[in-house]
Specification:
The chain has 339 residues and is of the alpha+beta class. Helices cover 48% and strands 17% of the residues. It has 8 helices and 8 strands. Helix 2 (14-59) packs antiparallel against helix 3 (76-103).
Amino acid sequence: HVFGVDMIAALNSSIGLKIAEAAGKVATILVVAAVAWTLVEQSIARIMEREEALARANAGDQAIDEDGLGGLVTSRFGTLLPLMRGFVLSVLAIITIMVVLSSMGIDIGPLLAGAGVAGIAIGFGAQALVRDIISGVFFLIDDAFRVGEYAEFGEIRGQVEKISIRSMRLRHHRGAIHTVPFGELRSITNYNRDWAIYKQEFRLPYDTDTEVVRKIIKKVGLALLEHPELGEKFIQPLKSQGVFRIEEGALILRTKFMCKPREQFVIRKAVFQDVKNALYAAGIELAQRRVQIEWNGHGQTEDGGQPAGQPSGQAIAAAGGAGLIASTGKAKSAYPDEP
């Protein structure tokens, strides 16, 4: 007896038999759903581990640069797997709930009709959400980006860390996280596909023999191809593009090389160091920025210091700084990302 009720008699009654039968069906359905989800979850987990291992093998010893363009890039299938897992879980949960309600004798027809009407109402009221989801589907079909890739979306850029059904999460190389809805994306710049070209500039004095510099850079480029770690990263060797422009006090010579994606930020360090050392070995120094101030003044001060009418060192420095700012319109930061 439970609460004064004879449970054996209750179970033997017609109502008790129906309740027991329904409970058995519900338990069976829940067990089948749990087993199905476990199998699906384990299969997806194994595939994701295999995709991650493949990404690590492809990355090798690739370093993460200070610009944040390193890290592992998953395949297109690996990018879609987390979304597939969420979709399968949602579908399985909905089917399980419907079957459980049906096994309990509840007519699910009106529920389905009501769900359809509610879906239409939600669709009208959440047009931005629907736009985000549909836009995300087409972006993924186009394979515009993958998890681990470094991409730029307008003024936002970073490494793709996570892709959900309506948005993506980017990690800026300074640590900030950007969450971008798919519906807000207009153009995408992906820095991780096929190949990359990197160009570097060197400031040389006016009297530099550019033909000699060209031969030096070519020699450095051939030597880098034989580098045990960097050689395989090149697609086309380092070469000189000649004098790109002339600035006050220097010739601006440009070099370029083609390499595998994301490797340019590792190679550029070796390129700059090797080119600088080769130029110094040939007696060619890089040009330095200088500010020249001219004035008219004669005589000495009474204490034997600055000539009369001649500005002091602080005045010259202030004038030079003002001239640099006036020539550019603003003082430039050494880091383009700084405000």
